[in-house]
Write a structure and sequence with these properties.
- This protein has 266 residues and is mainly alpha-helical.
- A hairpin with a 2-residue loop joins strand 1 and strand 2.
């Protein structure tokens, strides 16, 4: 009995050759790359996914006749943005794909973002933008261990820049928060004793882990007002760590910097 993959492959190759460079065929062995199967939700093979301009446009499962493969290929080619051929330089395709994945991530479509980043990383495993993007997907999906595992694949020379440092700092802060008491308990300790600086400091770390960025900044500034020298200026140092994790343009960073400046220069 002929396996479906062996039935489909000759039809795919024939149609791709007919298109004379307008479309590219990339084969991936999912036994050797199980992560791709998970990212794309593949449960059976053969599975064919089509991308145009870095965006997924169509897909099908199983072996289909040559005529259907041809219609499928024509649809992919016609979906290329601004009438451009789907098969530009590999660098351009990767750039478009990373941009498309970034847009999907901004819109909260983690599944699509992961699929595109995963395809890019299959072609170029050391692509910095795709590594950071995939790590962001896992971080947003509340899977910090997997996010860190992805970041660990970053080439040493590329371990720099605001996005990379922000993610590293965010993962560090999240790990710190996991070791602390619950937020309600810490808040109660601060209310009972406003001079319990450690509880207020820990509360700020927990606030950050819960996405309450402004509350975290305000808690650290309040600690500084009570004791600037506590723990060797620990509150200010932690606040700067938060700013790095949030990014320079984040509203909480801008507000936090204003609060810090008002305190330091008052």
């Amino acid at each position: 009995m002929v396996r479906p993959c062996r039935q489909l492959t000759p039809n795919l190759e024939k149609v791709i050759n007919e298109k004379a460079g307008k479309i590219r065929l990339v084969k991936i062995n999912i036994d050797e790359n199980p992560g791709v199967a998970g990212q794309l939700g593949i449960q059976s093979i053969p599975a064919v996914f089509a991308f145009a301009g870095g965006r997924p446009v169509d897909a099908f499962l199983g072996a289909i006749p040559e005529s259907e493969v041809r219609r499928f290929a024509d649809k992919v080619i016609s979906s290329a943005p601004e009438g451009k051929p789907a098969a530009g330089s590999i660098e351009e395709e990767i750039k478009n794909a990373v941009e498309a994945a970034g847009e999907a991530l901004k819109l909260g479509d983690l599944n699509q973002a992961a699929q595109i980043y995963g395809m890019v990383l299959q072609h170029k495993p050391d692509h910095p933008g795709a590594i950071i993007g995939m790590a962001k997907v896992f971080f947003t999906a509340e899977d910090p261990e997997q996010a860190q595992a992805v970041l660990d694949t970053m080439p040493e020379a590329e371990r720099k820049g605001e996005e990379y440092n922000s993610l590293i700092q965010s993962l560090k802060l999240l790990g710190e928060a996991a070791e602390l008491s619950e937020t309600d308990e810490l808040a109660a300790e601060v209310e009972a004793d406003p001079d319990n600086h450690q509880a207020r400091f820990d509360l700020a770390v927990k606030y950050n882990a819960e996405g309450k960025r402004l509350e975290a900044a305000e808690a650290l500034v309040a600690l500084m007002k009570r004791d600037r020298t506590w723990n060797e200026d620990g509150a200010r140092k932690k606040l700067l760590e938060l700013f790095e994790a949030w990014g320079a343009k984040d509203p909480a960073t801008l507000k936090g910097r204003r609060l810090l400046s008002a305190l330091l220069f008052s």
